[in-house]
Amino acid sequence: MNTALAKSYELEKKGLEFYINSAVGSKNILAKRTLFSLAREEINHMIKIDEISISLDNTGKWPD
Question: By C-alpha distance, which of 4, 13, 24 is closest to 46?
Answer without folding.
Answer: 13
